[in-house]
Amino acid sequence: MTGRRLGVAVVTGRSMEPALHEGDRVLVLWRGRPRVGRMAVVRLPPSEHGPRPISVKRVTRPSPGEPGAWWVERDNPAEGVDSWHVGGIPESDVLGRVLVRLPGFTRRVWRA
């Protein structure tokens, strides 16, 4: 048994726009091996202010000079934190592979 399982994660923030938006739901293969070009759910290292939230980022390559680590990036260069800020992400902090955005939960604009 590999311990992999399917689950749903809810996107918060704007770092993955235009691919994902606030409130989107994604199907995640927890403990799924990262794949270059695909999105993953990752644990970013803490900042000087404390822990960062679990995030969705795009896996772009193995991290240079860091065996067993992955380079992850945001799609929106104006928002969020990625490996350009914190370096490579150890494979143990790549929590799951995003398989697909679930339809019907996205791009809702709520107005009062």
| CATH architectural designation | Ribbon
Strand order in the largest sheet: 1-2-7-3-4-5-6
Q: What gyration radius follows from the Cα positions, in whole Å?
A: 14 Å
Uncertain spans, ≥5 residues at pLDDT below 50? none
How would a crystallographer describe the biggest sheet?
A: 7 strands, antiparallel
* N-to-C CA distance: 49 Å
Please, what is the CATH homologous superfamily? Answer: Umud Fragment, subunit A
Proportion of residues in extended strands: 35-45%
Fraction of residues in helices?
Answer: under 10%
- Class from secondary-structure proportions: mainly beta
Number of helices: 1
**N to C succession of SSEs:** EEEEEHEE
CATH class: Mainly Beta
On the 0-100 scale, what is the average pLDDT? 91
Our count of domains comes out at: 1
- CATH structural fold name: Umud Fragment, subunit A
Inertia-based shape: globular
Would you count the extended β strands for me? 7
Q: What would a concise description of this structure say?
A:
This protein is mostly beta strands.
Could you explain the architecture of this structure?
The chain has 112 residues and is mainly beta. The protein has one domain: Ribbon (Umud Fragment, subunit A). It has 1 helix and 7 strands, in the order βββββαββ. The chain has one helix at residues 83-86, and strands spanning 5-10, 25-30, 39-42, 55-62, 69-73, 89-90, 94-102. Strands 1-2-7-3-4-5-6 form a 7-stranded antiparallel sheet. A hairpin with a 6-residue loop joins strand 4 (55-62) and strand 5. The termini are far apart. The mean pLDDT is 91.
